[in-house]
Amino acid sequence: MGVRAADIAVGDSLPPLTLRITRADLVRYAGASGDLNPIHWSERFAVGVGLPGVIAHGMLTMGMAARIVTEWTGDPGAVLEYGVRFGRPVPVPDDDLGALVEVTAKVTKVLDDGTFKVNVTAAFEGKSVLGGASARVRLA
């Protein structure tokens, strides 16, 4: 069960979320999405095109970061809109730990239609990886 609209105020922070993105996640996402770009699986190729190594798919990072909102609402259907700009890549090491992405969010506005705007921040090694990330949610 998620939060109720009557209990929410502008400035409220959502419970933080820590994500681990591993190479196994990249393989699963590539298979599901059809995005087989070698920057997401070949170290040699990724470095050859100027990246720091294999990087997570932007859409995977975006989708995983949305969990902060869906877990808070308790209902993925409560998220009416969600959008981000991709700021910087998330390099994923070839180990069992993967990349650690810290996600935080805050209620920033009550809109005229009774929905709430929630700004989301996702950071890897202290640097933002998603820009302008926000969701519009309708709470019971």
UniProtKB/TrEMBL annotation:
Protein name listed in UniProt: Acyl dehydratase
Gene Ontology annotations for the cellular component aspect, listed alphabetically: fatty acid synthase complex
A biological process term (GO) from this entry: fatty acid biosynthetic process
Family to which the UniProt record says this protein belongs: Belongs to the enoyl-CoA hydratase/isomerase family.
Highest taxon above the source species: Bacteria
Domain called MaoC-like: residue spans: 18-107
One of the record's GO molecular function terms: fatty acid synthase activity
